[in-house]
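Explain my protein.
***
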Amino acid sequence: MQGMSLIVKNITRVVAGFIILFGAYIVLYGHVTPGGGFAGGVILAGGLALVVLAFGEEFARNVLTHDVARLADSMGALLFLLVAVLGFMGGVFFTNFLPLGDVGALLSAGTIPIANLGIGIKVGAGLFGVFLALAAFRRATSGGSAAHGRLP
């Protein structure tokens, strides 16, 4: 059986969703509260890394493959670049081309939430991809002993 003990797996089933939800909250409300795209992306990647550690690399690759992480990484970068280019078309690089709302409201910051979303997706997918690559490297260099809980 791959992964950690049954207790760790059950706790991860409960906690991982809350961690990912909290990461999404930090990304989306980063312009109103402390946080933002980078911090939320790190939290998202941490929740996904917890799933890999608890259930094993093979289970995580069935849920979120390296190709999906690479695609999300690219899409986050493109979304951020799109905000910059659309602002440039408005006259200044990264200019705010959306109307501002009420101070403290979710839709109060123009293009900042969209940029935070792009950064959050990019950072979360990028860090998760790095984590998967390191897990694969560890497995390759240890001769498969990592799956049995032994250190190389």
Residues 112-142 form the longest helix (31 residues). Helices lie at 6-28, 37-55, 57-63, 66-89, 112-142. Residues 146-152 have pLDDT under 50 and may be disordered.
